[in-house]
Amino acid sequence: MSAAFGLMLAVFVGIALLRGPVGLAMIAGGIAYLGATGQDMGLAAEQILNSLFGSFVLIAVPMFIFAANVMNSGTLSERLYGLAHAIMGRFRGGLAHVNVLASVIFAGMSGSAIADAVGPGMVEIEMMCKNNRYSRPFAVAVSAASATIGPIIPPSIPMVLYALVSGASVGALFIGGIVPGLLMAAAMMLVIVWIARRRNFPMESPVPWSELPKIFVRTLLPLLMPVVLLGGIYSGVFTPTEAAAVAALYALALALFVYRALDWKGLVSVLADSARSTAVVGIIICGAFLFNYVLATEQVPARLAEWFLSLNLGPLGFLIVANLVFLVLGCLLDTTTLLLVLVPLVLPVARAVGVDLVHFGVVIVVNMMIGLLTPPYGVLLFVLSGLTGTPVKEIVRELVPFIVALVAVLFLITFVPSLVLALPELAGYVR
């Protein structure tokens, strides 16, 4: 490692420790490297702009962010919650089950864990805490855990970013996340059943079965979004990137014209929120492009690949080590940074040992969703803690069994690749 590379890391870590924006910290570190090596400072802008203009897939990110914000502002999430309640509310601990099922349904439309948490999640927390039926820490923990399903069941913003750095098929990644996402939901529901029996949670008044058709019809149009997206992608009508624009337009049409739940003033607010969120992600992406240029110049990925190969781990051994490393790093770094900076370092190793990149991508994204729940950096913890006024310590205590269940699912899909790859192969994906 050169002295210039050490300087870049020192600048990056220093700004990050001072709580500066991670994206700006990466850009500053990259510029410091260019200065120390005597290269033209304009190379920073060149690398960023060339990478941005050459990455058509990035257009999907702001579109999915906008679609999720429209759904949360246009009461679509409340309709989805009503359907989940009609199906699952009748069981012991029913509202906790409703929370998970609503996240599964919303996951097929948003692609963002944060959007799930602050949209349906907040509705579910208030319903669970009404009349003290559930403790607030437990309600927040269930909402945080179930929100991790959002980026696993398609569409998925993290999978789009993974496709950007790996070259893997976005469509295959999307469909490969369906079974793991459902397994995550099933694991959480088993945890809820166990806790519900121990704590004797209440049973809700069941919605009559005769009411279900009416509730289903009320929710039918939002439910069609994942069908439209996946159907369009696999029929060849539009690409996965174009599907993001279709999702945004579909959500906007429902909110503005069908349900009339969003007026033009509200639309301006949604656009502003989406622009802010996109800017945050965009700065990190720009910083990652420059960071990755430096890493390639220093031949870090090649050296890391040589070291891993010298261990003779094989595909399964590599996946186990990668899972353990990213589980730890997920406690310290945000998902975007991990995907754009650290994942490219291990991709050459994955290719060299024969790991399928779609399988690896889904495994890594599930891994990183667990990181959203684990302190000290768990983003979902702090978002929901701030919104509900619940201490992080109390949320973490309730989250422990859910995290254990999610880790079990992570290693299940690691050891059984067909759980990820079976559906993509049926859709024509070739390894």
From the helix content, strand content and strand pairing, which structural class follows?
A: mainly alpha
Q: Determine the oligomeric state from the structure.
A: single chain
Helical residue percent? over 70%
Q: Which residues form runs of ≥5 with pLDDT under 50?
A: none
Q: What order do the SSEs take from the amino end to the carboxyl end, as H and E?
A: HHHHHHHHHHHHHHHHHHHHHH
Cα distance spanning the termini: 35 Å
Helical stretch tally: 22
Nearest-integer average pLDDT: 85
Shape: globular
- How many structural domains can be distinguished in the coordinates? 1
CA-atom Rg in angstroms: 22 Å
Strand-residue proportion: under 5%
Q: Could you explain the architecture of this structure?
A:
- This protein is 77% helix and 0% strand.
- The chain has 431 residues and is mostly helical.
- It has one domain (40-426).
- It is globular and about 70 Å long.
- The two termini are 35 Å apart.
Give short descriptive properties of this protein:
single chain, 431 residues, mainly alpha, 22 helices, 77% helix, 0% strand
